Amino acid sequence: MAPSTAVQLKEEGNALFVKKHYARAHEKYSEAIAIDGQNAATDLDPTYAKGWSRLASAHDAGLEFTSAVVAWQKALDALPKVDLSPAELKQKEQYTTSLQKATERLEAATKEALPGDLQASGPAGYNSSVRTRRILISDFTEGVGYMNILKKVPMKGGPQGYAIIGHTEGLTCITNGVMRDLRVFRIDCQDWLDKYNDQVCFEAEKRRAWTSESLEGIQKAALQRLKKEGWHDVRPALSVVVRGWIMRAIFDSELRQVPQVAVERLKETLELLHWGRQIWRDVSKDDRGAIFENTFVRGVKSIYLETLMAAHEKATGPDKTALLDTLLAAARELIDEMQNAGQPTYTEPVDPGFVSSFHIYPVAEAHAEKHLHYTLAVGEYTEAARMLPPDDEKHCWYLNCTIDPLLRGDAPKKVVMGVVNMIRAAMPLMQRIWAHSALAKQGRDAMIETTLRVAESKHA
Questions:
Q1: Which comes out higher in pLDDT, residue 180 or 292?
Q2: Does this model's pTM top 0.90?
């Protein structure tokens, strides 16, 4: 039996959609994406609004609200801007209503994750890390879900005797999650890395990404392909390259425990992004892609800071001093950048945790990493804690980190005990949300308690 084509799979998906079998329709659309590397319902005709609406409805049915919001917006964008026909006006009204409902469902799903007292407090209670945590886990989990449905189907005449069926957005979802907050990264099964490698190889092949070229080689190849093929081909290829580099850096730092290698990989990633932002500074996001947006680059810089910190802790001698200088400079640069950027504004829907992930947390991280300059330790840790929600574990942890320099500097009892009391008040909030985080498993609460007892005994 001949293998299905992308168009056939799209038609099967449409038939299932009409019968309201949304989950199965979504599977068919995903297989169509996998076979031709493009979305048969949408990318084969980027202005095909009905294709985007069907995909959005499938996401709605699968409770994938973040993806649904994006797809409904794409459906709206695909409609003509002027001189709409009566049918197109009806579509516009329908898609606008559906976008609003998907956005409301996303808000409601996020709010449901809040403890009861935070729900009751309304918007005043939204200053909670659970909103960001809920969304970033959703992104990461969705990406891993795509990774898990990747499958190999026998195909005569195929280069390896089989074809790979999957979804080309797995890497995007996974990296979106870890860039929001590296604490979301986890490996929960023995073959996780094998599945991940299969996913990346699949996406690299479908997107024709450059997998072995140097930075300079990729820059040259991207410019050449852009002239011949256009943004439709170059945009996804660069995205796979950049996101793949980010994940390799995370593996180097978190799994292989060689953060110095990860530092160099992230430096190269930032060089590629800076280069693209410069030469394509007048190109729209729709063409050049999300990886060149301020928020994306900021997410990479945040991971870079954490990796520099890990490398500094492992280094010795002159390397340790050099890494400290680099870390302080990178932290100052990010803080200055955010101060100059002012209040963020957006031209398209963003989920409730977006501002926290890309505007608050990176600056808090930058302040925290400046603590290595000992005379700045108390002020920087305090500023980092101040910027975070009181129930975020880093808020409590950064306050805890001010105790030692305060005691060493013979700070007044009133100052020390003021910090101790803030930590005592924050710990119950932290524990109900971050009870099972990586830091908690490393003995976070016991370490904080030890620090507090030392401070309380000195000022009893």
A1: 292
A2: no
